[in-house]
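Extended Data, panel c. Modelled sequence:
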Amino acid sequence: MSMKRKLGRSGIETSALGMGCWAIGGPFWREDTPVGWGPVDDAESMRAIHACIDLGVNFFDTANVYGAGHSERVLGKALAGKRDQVVIATKFGNLFDEATRKITGQDASPDGIRQACQDSLKRLGTDFIDLLQFHTGEYSPDGAVEVRETLEELVRAGKIRAYGWSTDNPDLARIFAQGPNCTAAQFQMNVLEDAPLMLDVCQEFDLAGINRGPLAMGLLTGKYTPTTQLGSEDVRGTLSPEWMKYFKDGRPNPEWYRKLESVREVLTSGGRSLAQGALAWLWARSECTLPIPGIRTVAQAEENCKALTFGPLDPNQMQEIARLLGRV
């Protein structure tokens, strides 16, 4: 199996692995709840981006809201002079204040989308975005049609090449998939949490399935033990939002940690690290998967990119994992 992917029906060629750029945005907040990954070193972030490119990764996934514009700015700076080598995906839907680094609301009106697109182009230092994704996971079906039509307009205007929706709701993904230039759905998926219904939509409409949380927010890196304590500025820390299920009270959630322990041996067989095994499971699960682990250091870039040289798990390993997790 090739370690390249087609970005759904757009035919845009990407690496089978992408770099998730949420963490490199640094801290930002929704009211008083942290939704970033703590402090960040921009110079190291840029070195990590360059390491990914050198190691064969050409897909970079960010959002306008990550670090309240900061992730896009850092990515744009790192990709200056390399635009023709990469595929840039970003997202819209949230309003924010760059000065206070706070989310201030949501806007998916046609004017709001056009404005968000212009602002992202500017921060990224590019004149087109390869993949623009709707960042509001739940939305009214009628409203979604209007959002889709505005995105089709942006394709016609040459501002974007294709679009998608970051949602875990298959019915909503299907609404976007009716648009000729919809080419991707982004959803939560990893070895501990399969997403068969979202994969069905991807198969049916020939969409790329971009996997966020492919390492379960870091749980599948093996760096965190049951006693690890994460800081309050971290989205996984003591003040974490409601939806954060892999970590609880700033520590790995025991229920998810047990699942990880049950499959650790299979994932790390053949010389793979735990993270490399988790990525290998996603590639073996479906031809449409495109995992985007968060990367903010050169060391993380090297470890994740090395997963490409190991490739997908084999069918026996996949069956064994399904049995261990009680999915048979």
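The radius of gyration is 19 Å. This feature is highlighted in the accompanying rendering.
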